[in-house]
């Protein structure tokens, strides 16, 4: 079997992406910075980014427009180097991706300490402020029990409040009360299951994970046997980017519930394993490609850090956030 015909699924996935009618270029650029640029110092020359994304159907004008919008939205910032400029994740942008990275690159779902994290609205907030708070907590995985009560099984409440402050919502903090509610049962109880049903609708998320597995399993079949892998490292990079981009978009809607609180045969577990295994297969050839493709405004090649090798490593099951 030749390299040309073992890359059919990978090439098909890339072609499908290129044919998308509406492309969220800004979201894809954030995936590039979080997955490839952050482990190499967190900065990149715009010309290098343009060349990196052109094979995926993003032209120079679209990339420039999207980058400028990300600067305006305070995801990215710029730093001049002579006549050129490097782009970097802002402190807020870095924090947002690092929070997501804890989910994206975890080898397994976290253990549960059987304590619920609650955020209660105990002060006066107008309708607009309440909606803004609801959306902010939704993106951090919180379920809404109504009546001003938001719930999560494992969120770090300190980081939650820090994130609200970073996102310009510090003035709402006096109206909020963080609480921990202990569960005396060794496992999940009927009350826990009822809370999950009330706070989250998992059906759409389950369908998304099933579609992810269906989309990327053929790529796993191409890359899992070293002797049969496609030989083009550019394909490895493009497949890696789309893999992480699609998985990250699912995780943005995932409350990261511990396994004991999830329905039986939850497809998110299969999606996590598939993403982990395929990513590890794609990592070495894609990094070889990035060594030749990434440049700083100075012309230097940004070098990789050990952060890459830490991804998808088993986590300490006792390291549960408070």
Textual characterization of the structure:
With 322 residues, the protein is of the alpha+beta class. It has a domain of 68 residues: Alpha-Beta Plaits. Helices cover 52% and strands 11% of the residues. It is built from 13 helices and 7 strands. The strands form 2 sheets. A 4-stranded antiparallel beta sheet has the order 5-6-4-7, with helices on both faces. Strands 1-3-2 form a 3-stranded antiparallel beta sheet. A hairpin with a 4-residue loop joins β5 and β6. α2 packs across α10, α10 packs across α12 and α11 packs across α12. The longest helix is centred in the C-terminal third of the chain and has 27 residues. It is globular and about 55 Å long. It starts with a helix and ends in a 12-residue tail after the last helix. It comes from Tepidicella xavieri. Pfam families: PaaX, PaaX_C, PaaX_M. This is PaaX family transcriptional regulator.
């Amino acid at each position: 079997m030749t390299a040309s015909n073992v890359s059919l699924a990978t090439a098909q996935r890339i072609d499908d992406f290129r044919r998308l009618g509406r492309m969220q270029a800004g979201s894809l650029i954030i995936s590039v910075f979080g997955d490839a640029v952050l482990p190499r110092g967190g900065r990149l020359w715009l010309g290098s980014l343009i060349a990196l994304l052109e094979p995926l159907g993003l032209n120079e004008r679209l990339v420039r427009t999207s980058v400028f919008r990300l600067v305006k939205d305070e995801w990215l910032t710029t730093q001049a180097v002579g006549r050129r400029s490097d782009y970097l994740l802002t402190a807020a942008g870095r924090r947002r991706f690092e929070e997501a990275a804890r989910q994206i690159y975890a080898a397994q779902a976290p253990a549960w300490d059987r304590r619920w994290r609650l955020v209660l609205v105990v002060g006066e907030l107008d309708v607009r402020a309440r909606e803004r708070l609801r959306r902010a907590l939704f993106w951090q995985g919180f379920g809404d029990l109504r009546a001003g009560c938001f719930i999560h099984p494992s969120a770090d409440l300190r980081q939650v409040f820090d994130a609200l402050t970073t996102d310009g919502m510090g003035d709402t903090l006096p109206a909020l009360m963080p609480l921990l509610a202990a569960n005396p049962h060794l496992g999940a109880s009927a009350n826990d299951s009822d809370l999950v049903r009330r706070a989250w609708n998992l059906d759409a998320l389950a369908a998304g994970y099933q579609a992810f597995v269906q989309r990327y399993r053929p790529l796993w079949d191409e890359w899992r046997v070293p002797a049969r892998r496609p030989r083009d490292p550019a394909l490895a990079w493009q497949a890696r980017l789309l893999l992480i981009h699609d998985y990250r978009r699912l995780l943005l809607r995932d409350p990261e519930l511990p396994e004991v609180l999830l329905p039986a045969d939850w497809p998110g577990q299969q999606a996590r394993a598939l993403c982990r295994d395929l990513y590890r297969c794609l990592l070495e050839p894609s990094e070889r490609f990035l060594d030749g493709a990434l440049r700083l405004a100075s012309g230097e090649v940004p070098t990789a850090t050990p952060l890459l090798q830490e991804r998808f490593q088993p986590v300490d099951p006792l390291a549960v956030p408070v």
